[in-house]
Design brief:
Blueprint: E1 3-8, E2 14-18, E3 21-25, E4 30-34, E5 39-44, E6 47-52, H1 58-73, E7 78-85, E8 90-94, E9 97-101, E10 108-111, E11 116-120, E12 127-132, H2 135-146, E13 158-161
Antiparallel strand pairs: 1-6, 2-3, 3-4, 5-6, 7-12, 7-13, 8-9, 9-10, 11-12
């Protein structure tokens, strides 16, 4: 018995299926995704149908969610807002090169991927956002930036995503 998922394609979004690859184009971007070999995908009018013959719906649900995120991302950009917290921490942008000053003896450089945009939100360069039409790519790049200087638990210095809970430890007590 085959299981299927039916997705409505919104107005202004173009979808094409070529073999096991789905291309979705909208107002703010173009994304593509390779489909798992156990799944089949069909385009009928303004509906996208994903089917599987597996007993479990886990894979079907995962790819349905990924394609729903793709349909959303080509209309409205996904965004993560990050903050640099520490003495002298800041970010400068030169084209697609990001230059981080994170308290090390030298600046740390990072190149932004093609589908990602970085906007500096304040004049100090301590608050910025990562935007893109692919939610997975936005999350991965924000995570890569966080690894440049992970938040330390005593004073809270480091790179953090706004809204993320940071557990702070109590320092040593004097007796």
């Amino acid at each position: 018995m085959s299981k299927k998922s039916l997705l409505n394609i919104p107005q202004g979004v173009l979808v094409s299926v070529k073999g096991k690859v789905v291309f979705i184009k909208g107002l703010v971007g173009i994304v593509k995704k390779n489909i798992h070999p156990c799944l089949s995908i069909f385009l009928i009018r303004n509906y996208l149908i994903i089917t599987t013959k597996l007993k479990s719906k886990v894979l079907l649900n995962t790819f349905t969610t990924l394609i729903l995120n793709m349909l959303k991302g080509v209309r409205v950009l996904f965004e993560k807002v990050l903050e640099l917290k520490g003495l002298g921490f800041n970010l400068k942008k030169q084209g697609n090169l990001l230059i981080f000053k994170l308290g090390y003896s030298h600046p740390t450089n990072l190149i932004t991927p093609n589908n990602i945009t970085i906007n500096i939100l304040n004049k100090d360069g301590t608050l910025f956002n990562v935007q893109g039409s692919d939610s997975q790519l936005v999350g991965e790049f924000a995570g890569k930036i966080k690894t440049l200087y992970p938040v330390e638990p005593y004073k809270g210095r480091g790179v953090r995503i706004i809204g993320q809970f940071i557990y702070k430890k109590e320092g040593k007590k004097l007796s």
